[in-house]
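#onboarding

Welcome to the new folks! Below is a worked example of what a typical request in this channel looks like: someone posts a single protein sequence, and someone else replies with the predicted structure as tokens. Don't worry about understanding the tokens yet, we'll cover that in week two.

Example request:
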Amino acid sequence: MNTLTAARPIAPHETEVGGQGGLADAPSWPAVAAWGGGLVQLALGAGAITAAEGGLAIRVVGILLALIGAAAIGWGAATLARGRLVVPRLSIAGSLAGILTAAVAMSLDPTRVSVFAVAAGTILLIAVAFGCARTLRGDRSRGTDAGRGHLVGLVVAAVLVAGLVTPALAATEAGQHAVPHGEMVDPGHHH
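Example response:
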């Protein structure tokens, strides 16, 4: 039996490229998408919680958005640290919860909740769910990157997510109240 060509099952802690996990083998794009989606969820939540007008329902939804956003960011970090998508079934459920919660926020306060921010967050959370679904299907060969390809994938994912997240954050209630770039805030003067 030729040991170079013989197939063997992949151990749960290994990846398709034969590594033991870690940053070099991490499926980067779902983690980066989770960071982007999490940031949008946090911004939407902050806007809903701190809105001058609005009732208890929008504030509760804002708290849920903030919690989901923080969980998405933590999940992305854990995924990169472990070199594999962690708790993929729960991550799909969390992505769906984030999408539904953002839709509820938009329905409760359509004048202040940005459609663009909700759409951007939804796209990113769908990407996370898609990555997790591929992992559950056993499609490991396309779900992992190796070596230099990983770095390129990480940079491309970061650029795409930043290009989507930056305008989405600016469109949120929190982003609209941010100090414009290049201006200094006078501590004695409040906007």
